[in-house]
Specification:
Elements: E1 7-15, E2 21-27, E3 71-73, E4 78-81, H1 95-98, H2 115-131, E5 137-138, H3 140-156, H4 169-175, E6 180-189, H5 194-203, H6 205-211, E7 218-225, E8 231-240
Parallel strand pairs: 5-7
Antiparallel strand pairs: 1-2, 1-4, 1-6, 3-4, 6-8, 7-8
Amino acid sequence: MRGPAVGLGLAVVALAVCGSATPALAVSGTATPALAVPGSATPALAYAPPGTPDVAPSGRPPVSGWGDAPVRTKPHRRSELESPTGRAAVPGADPIVASRTAVTSASVAPGPQSPVQQQVLALVNQERKEAGCDPITLDRRLIQAANRHASDMARRGYFDHESPAGEKAGSRVTGAGYPWRRYGENIAKGQDSPFRVMADWMRSPGHRENILDCRLDQMGVGLALAADDTPYWVQDFATPRS
């Protein structure tokens, strides 16, 4: 697997009940929030009224981006950062220890019990526990939505929350059969292990906010490898409509 140029992105977290939304993160090669204003590396908050989660009016205050790495400006909702490649560790019974192992084509699995899902879940819940949040759980529909987007980006070679056809994060979650009240998305490209992608996301204020949002209850992780073995990551969070 070639050395990654790490990047991150941030998507939107929307409240369907009251029509407000908070930012979600998307990442490509590094961890950076994906609600950036076109032509700017600084992501902005997006708001979505009920039933239209992906519509983002202007005029909202900016969301913080990564502050500890050089940023290259990217159009539409993302920044790209350079990040060192992590060393692969010997897998162990502890999913946090095993999370340092480099991913391969065999790592891509859709079920909640797959190693990648369990390793990212353990890392997320470790961070949420320290922040005082309840643990998050895995949901097959969110895994499906995340894997679908990761595979599409890897296959078509783009890096964004919005597909070339215009499909956005909220539509993907809904399309997977998940009736959400709130959702968020982080994306990343180039990180070679669950440990590395989580480290990058946690260094980004926007992505970190999604991971530590106590109002989000469930998660699914998407992972796909492009033809050149570049990993594409998607992390979809949501709270079901009650």
